[in-house]
Specification:
mainly alpha
Length: 94
């Protein structure tokens, strides 16, 4: 996969193609726990000075988010487009 042309849709499909069977067996609650753990690792990396580790942790968070979306049948690209790319800005403090 060429990172300069990577899309959310392509990455989410890549994660599904490689891991979806086992991810669905694990289920949403346990998958969410893995995502939560990755957020903790990202928090630690943000407070450190290891750039390679920081990049890895950002990538892990995105991968686990895609996993969670896959097993809950959410198309992230569509959800992002609906919420953030429309004519009306999202509600809240973004």
């Amino acid at each position: 996969m060429d990172p300069t042309n990577l899309t959310f849709a392509a990455f989410q499909k890549h994660i599904a193609d490689k891991y979806e069977k086992v991810d669905r067996q694990r289920g949403t609650p346990r998958t969410f726990m893995w995502l939560t753990e990755e957020f903790g690792e990202l928090a630690t990396a943000l407070n450190g000075d290891d750039r390679a580790n920081l990049e890895e942790e950002f990538a892990d968070v995105i991968a686990w988010l895609c996993t969670l979306a896959n097993i809950n049948d959410v198309d992230l690209a569509s959800a992002i487009a609906k919420k953030y790319l429309g004519d009306k800005p999202p509600a809240g403090h973004k």
